[in-house]
Design brief:
single chain; alpha+beta; YaeB-like fold; 2 helices; globular
Length: about 110
Amino acid sequence: MSKFPLITKSIKGIRIRLMQERWRHIIRRHKELKNYATEVLLAVEKPDLIIAGKVGALVAVKYFREIKPHYLIVAYREIGGADGFIITAHFISNIHDIRRRRIVWKS
């Protein structure tokens, strides 16, 4: 794995950081993500869907055929127009409930 912070860009072109502390927190709670840091970044960069999260956060949803459960959910926040950070991430098997939230962007 590369050195932290890991950087990607949101669909708006805003730099989104994954800090080492945040990654440790994520994999402590969701051990199944340990080998999927690249996919977490990809979900933010090339999501299938973005929904409104809590308190101004955005939630990227990305389908991965080769991973079970297939959907990766990544909550992140954009700060101003130039920076942002990943809050958390986890896999889910069904997006029906999550699609009830307000869709911000769809591919």
